[in-house]
């Protein structure tokens, strides 16, 4: 980590002292995500209920500017303007660089068709199988660590050669044991786990933005 990223980690622990116990895991997750993007990979994020909303939230922070605007490089701005001097230049002023990320579960036709024709618990695994490459990372979110659809997704990801990050509660469950890096926040009750998940993934997204932009 660079100095700014270390400052973010210190500030996180200052605000949420409970997270000191998972500080090393957060740093390991950051390095895994950083290497994913260095290798031109993408992140597949999935959870259920509130954790599905967290997955969407993560994608929102990665796919556009979070604290930084992430202006396009000059050559890409020129390319857009060369294609269309009006609309292209408008895009050149508006588009932002992104860290590729996909939230699993949001593709209604695919998910409902697979759930109806095959097995709803395997929908995420099917998406991982279709999208996943060895350069990618599966980021699973489960307060218990035992969500069945996340278990299947982990198995599919590992078969694809992907790395897996788990964001769970204190017990960790299946995800806590199977993930390459497991961040087990020190709470058990679902809503308390979720309250600690948000600052963890916010911090990771900020650290990634610091790294690449």
Write structural notes for this entry:
With 213 residues, this protein is an alpha/beta fold. Helices cover 57% and strands 10% of the residues. The protein has 10 helices and 5 strands; from the N terminus they run ααβαααβααβαβαβα. Helix 7 (123-131) packs parallel to helix 8. The protein is globular.
Determine the mean pLDDT: 97
Number of strands: 5
What string, H for helix and E for strand, traces the elements in order?
Answer: HHEHHHEHHEHEHEH
Q: Please state the CA-atom Rg, rounded to the nearest Å.
A: 18 Å
Low-confidence region ranges: none
What are the salient characteristics of this protein?
57% helix, 5 strands, 213 residues, alpha/beta, single chain
Write the layout of secondary structure elements.
Elements: H1 3-15, H2 23-38, E1 43-46, H3 50-62, H4 74-83, H5 87-94, E2 101-103, H6 108-119, H7 123-131, E3 137-141, H8 148-159, E4 163-168, H9 173-178, E5 181-184, H10 190-212
Parallel strand pairs: 1-2, 1-3, 3-4, 4-5
What would you say about this model in short?
The chain is of the alpha/beta class and 213 residues long. The chain has ten helices and five strands; from the N terminus they run H-H-E-H-H-H-E-H-H-E-H-E-H-E-H. The two termini are 14 Å apart.
